[in-house]
Structure prediction request, 296 residues.
Amino acid sequence: MSLRQMEYLVAVVEEQSFTRAAEALHVTQSALSHQIKALEREVGGPLLERMTRGVRLTPMGRAYYPHAELAVRSARQARRAALAAGGAQTGELHIATVHAQAIGVLPAVCARWARLRPGVRLVLHEYATTEELADRMLRGVADMALGPRPEDWPGPVTVVGRERMVLVVPHGDPLAGRASVRLADLADRPWVRCSLEPVLAGRRWLDVECERAGFTPRTAVRTQHTSTAVRMASAGVGVLLTAAHELTGLDCARIPTDPPWRRDITVFSRVELTGAAAEFTGLLREWGEENEENGE
Prediction:
């Protein structure tokens, strides 16, 4: 089986269509179908089920696909790394991240990158949870990932900054004028919970800290994205714990926790970073230093 055949399979699964996959690969649909059938013969059975609307993987395909996807993405990543190491001024840098980092950290850093390296296009892959981010990075979706420190990551991890966690409430809330708030003072308040809450040793940080303070947080609403959670808290649905830098430009009151709490922002990857990925990591470190100086 060839890498090209695996690339064709990955394209069909990603596009959920032979027609769209052929267009993306710039080949005829008949040529694409021929290569998929050749791959299926070599594997020993059908990998795709043709349906009225789209396609889906067969049980054999589901077993085969993660390995094919990793091989294809690793080959693309290797090519980008080689070009970058050779001094190429054009190309792509693929960055995987969670939504909160995409809106809170990356805009300023990407703007700086566009000025410094206009020939290298950035491609962002955004995910809802840190678990999904780590899983996709293990499967080679991007050259580097940006997010909270992953647990048990097998590759390089670099701390590029720290984010200060704050409590979000509406203006006019009795807590809004406070210099800081202890979690024990919030035992009777409802909470806005987000899938991107900090996790320590497999447990949500908020659950652990509230337990220490003598209560279990009562959830008013649970969201997938931080931006949604912030708007819920700003509207008075409940108290939210989030990173201060994610609130830039938003109309809400933010109060530091007592004691203050911060968490690392990291870059992690499957292999040591070189070329454009290493340069982008340097810009993230600069952002982290500026963020620390500004108290964010």
Q: What stands out?
A: The chain has ten helices and 13 strands. Residues 59-85 form the longest helix (27 residues).
